[in-house]
């Protein structure tokens, strides 16, 4: 059974209760890739009802932890088996390079296997209570029906980040992918069915923001896990108040990358090039404001400009492309507008600064862009652009660095480049960010918790900490006599 762009509810593909559909486009060409269903309020109700039934069904609720682990492992095997196909689909729908996308599929399989192992390790505790004759112990139990709302920049990977711990804990889910990139999530639903996930445990609703809003407000949903913009995250917090559902949020970032006077400049250039332009800069963890010691700033800027000017911009499906398109025409306009504001505020464009032309003009391509002469107060240094735009900020006093790095609403990622390991540790401790990288690219691992401070979100994904937001702790008191 295949999706054909339909909704997946209660183990069945359906055209839904409405008649509205929408197109998903190839950002490299602007051409239509496929059509998906715009879920209605009735479809949201149907998905919540299906997930509620499945949560109560003894076949799922009573499934032994080892069996649930084997189920996740089978799904991991299928994702791995179809990594080539999934990577190509992700590349066409999102724009990232095929090789990068296929690597993401391998990471998704690893994530599923990691949480498959947790199924048999969700242990409670015996509490040393001081009440005579009483035994107290705790159980880790699933929260219930979970809405997993995912972004367009890493569609399948982030869906799996949420899906794996949710299922490992015994919840049921409704996945709502971004309307720009629904295709790999729909394919993932097919693989879930093939793996033997019981009907109703995994449901997929496609559509725009209104579908997500209905899920967040629905009293039958007990938990929302969202990755996306900070502004939408704030809306979700307000909308979730009706039944006080649990909320975890992985939101925006404006990652500072600090290049100390003693840094290996060549390593810093390479690291910031790759870390700043990962997925064409469309990543909340991308290094997106560079603080460089004034004695090294010219060397750093010239070398970075040289590397950027030689990058190949093109479709993700082209094997020699190093930088793909923006995900949509709307997002391309946003990136372009920020570059214009940077110039208006007095920053100098060293490389790039405009849309790609020629054979790429029909797609949503923007040249890799480097600014110098940037002041910390400028919009391009403070706002999340989410594109291939890198601002270089010179500094003279190292004692100002921590204050500058922390002078932001965000706190997701930061990076330090230094030859002094002790200095790297000190700065890592002082910077307020959920992840701090010293002399390296931004990276992930299933065993490492992921999340931010401040306006970058609530809670953590990955590692055993991810299970905290998908479980409730129940205390049990037993009178065992004196």
Automatic annotation (TrEMBL):
The keyword Oxidoreductase applies. InterPro entries: Ald_DH/histidinol_DH, Ald_DH_C, Ald_DH_CS_CYS, Ald_DH_CS_GLU, Ald_DH_N, Aldehyde_DH_dom. The active site is at 250. Residues 13-475 form the Aldehyde dehydrogenase domain. The keyword Oxidoreductase applies. It comes from the Bacteria. This is Aldehyde dehydrogenase DhaS. It comes from Georgenia halophila. The gene is dhaS.
